[in-house]
Design goal:
- The complex is a heterodimer of chains A (137) and B (384).
- With 137 residues, chain A is mainly β.
- In chain B, α1 crosses α3 and α4 crosses α15.
- Chain B is an alpha/beta fold and 384 residues long.
- Chain B has a 9-stranded mixed beta sheet with strand order 3-2-4-7-1-8-11-10-9, with helices on both faces. In chain B, strands 5-6 form a two-stranded antiparallel sheet.
- The chains are: A mainly beta (137), B alpha/beta (384).
- Chains A and B meet through α1, β4, β5, β6 and β8 of A and α5, α6, α7 and β5 of B.
- The complex binds zinc ion.
- The site of zinc ion has 8 residues of chain A, from loops.
Chain lengths: 137, 384
Amino acid sequence: MKPLTSRPPFYWRLRPFIYRLEGSRCSVCGHFHPLNRVVCRRCGSRTLERERLNNAGRLVNYTVVHQAQEGFEKTTPYLVGWVEMDDGTNLVGQLTDCDPQDLKVGMTIEMVVRKLRVDGDSNLIVYGVKFRPLVQR
Amino acid sequence: MRCFLCGAAVLKVDEHWDKSLAELMAEAGLRALEDSNLSTVDHVFVSNVYGERLQEQANLGTFLAEELGLKNVVATRVEAGGVSGLAALYSAATVVRSGLSKAAMVVGVEKMSDGTLEESISLMTMEERQEYIGSFGVSQLAEAALLYKEYMRRYKVGAESIAYFSVLSHENSSRCSHAQYQFKLSLESVMNSPMIAEPIHRLEATAPADGAAAIIVVSDDLAEKLDRTNCTLTGLGFSNDLPVAFDREDPLAMEAVSTAGRRALEMAGVSRSEVDFLELHESYSVMSPLMLEALGFTERGQACVKAEKGVFGLSGELPINTFGGLKGRGHPVGASGVYAVAEAFLQLVGEASKNQVAKAERGMVVSMAGLGAYAGAAVLEAVR
Ligand SMILES: [Zn+2]
């Protein structure tokens, strides 16, 4: 069966978050939520504003994944990082442009948009946010 | 919340290529019915998570009723990820307790061998927020690996101490005739198995499995009339948390597990020290210490030390996963919670055979959806 998540409208709808880390910030307690929200999950307030997270943060920890989920069979091993963005929001996502030996807990990372996978019979190419060690320029 | 469990059935967890989802749940349901000496029930609840995806089958309650030749009964499927089994038990207990039902059947069933290993990793990830975790190319397995690393870092615990929980589970499943894996594991073989998401080895996670288990829940008066040793369900508790662990204030806290456990014990009027055995939801090895600590059975960071002292073995102070738990008995997801309840029943009526916990008077079953997104707990007691 074709997974719902490999259908174009699913990704089209998610573009603000999976391309730009856009979500909803609570005006009362400041908590950031991925995606659209009407109620703050932390304090219950109903005043939330659209906001885009800063691009940078730090690496809390990471793992090398060898056992893939569906659609990622050809990408193993891949890296997944737990990151804390500059505003304190914690996210998990794939790490790119680096090898495990380049990674250090606490290092600065930035978000980039990369190809995540190629889906199903229609060869839908799915892009989305990944993180990489910040390149000093 | 007192009601009675008066019959149970557990099919061998396996790859049942020759049996359909319907056949598995019918076999378990029928055997539980026979075990209880009842001829019929008026409610059936099916606990199942992946039927729509793997078998393209919905409306499982009605199909179970048809398989069992039951007519004019209430029949529903219940789904709450890994907590599905206890959620179905909650439905059965509330209808029996309210007087709407005299006898209710709970059947947990899952048939994962219809999918690939990669699909099973994706299916487990359905308990996470798909729009965020799934679309970022992250699996629940990868998230569990990050929690495992954080546990090691925070409490200065080595991977071997956590992997030891797989050894413990297999110790019990090696003597259990309905277990998926009826052999012991050495710590070396766990540590030498391939890494699936570092630091998680293959033998620290569950494998896709088919299985079905069933229990019969009845009211006080009906329990008295039946010629069958029974046990009582005295406490049930549930609680939710933010679904994605990394959105929580402390991803290791497992607050839903703490709250569900506390509520179930309070409802039963039982203290932790009175619990004789514990069935956990160790979808990954590190979930055993995390749950033991969240439930308050050990101090934070101390579960591994206690495990190595033998506290959690079958003849220890607090036996856990007495038939092998998710790792050893197997994890047919929608059925796992019902297996655990059926196993607690077997312990409390003294029919646990080679897995019998001596003088088992009270047992607790704890299930979890995702990595602590939702949790349920049940306290069951022997009738003396
Ligand atoms: Zn708020």
